Amino acid sequence: MAEAKTKPTTQSVKDFISKLPDKQTRDDCTIIAKLMEEVTKHKGVMWGTSIVGYGTTTIKYAGGREADWPMIAFSPRKQSLTLYINPSDPNKAALLSKLGKHKVSGVCLHIKRLPDVDVPTLKKFIICEVKRIKRLSNAEAPTPEKLFIFSEKKKK
Questions:
Q1: What is the pTM of this model?
Q2: For residue 71, what are the domain limits?
Q3: Which domain CATH number covers 103?
Q4: What is the pLDDT of residues 106-137, one digit of tens each?
Q5: Which of 11, 82, 21 is nearest to 49 (CA)?
Q6: Packing angle between helix 23-40 and helix 119-139, nearest 10 degrees?
Q7: DSSP assignment of 30-66
Q8: Of 17, 27, 83, 152, which has the fewest beta carbons less than 10 angstroms from its beta carbon?
Q9: Bridge-partner residues for 128, per DSSP?
Q10: CA distance 25 to 28
């Protein structure tokens, strides 16, 4: 059976953020990291070379294979800051409408810069996602279909 490519590493989150080339991105990632740590009560862990994850949940695939995955995560990509906080969940529609400038693709929320969004609303969004995942995880190991609600709808 194939092993997951994206796994926790020993790389320091602080070192990763400090080496980002753009000051605005470093500042934004530092704030997002603090928000996610505060909400999850978990220290950030590098997953692979560029994803910063908080907390861990176990997902169970249809074939029975299980894999660990961060409860929530973010990654500074070239085009945007990508937050893995499942914006496609219909229960979060009201928060999305108040968030500010963003895009949604699948389970990712994309923002160009943190000043483009309302940070208190982003924090509520993160809280909502952590509660949702904890609810799912307490019931049983969620399937990717339950954990990741997919939608092609985009917001600006």
A1: 0.84
A2: 13-146
A3: 3.90.1150.200
A4: 889 999 999 999 999 999 999 999 988 888 77
A5: 11
A6: 40
A7: HHHHHHHHHHH---EEEETTTEEEEEEEEEE-TTS-E
A8: 152
A9: none
A10: 5
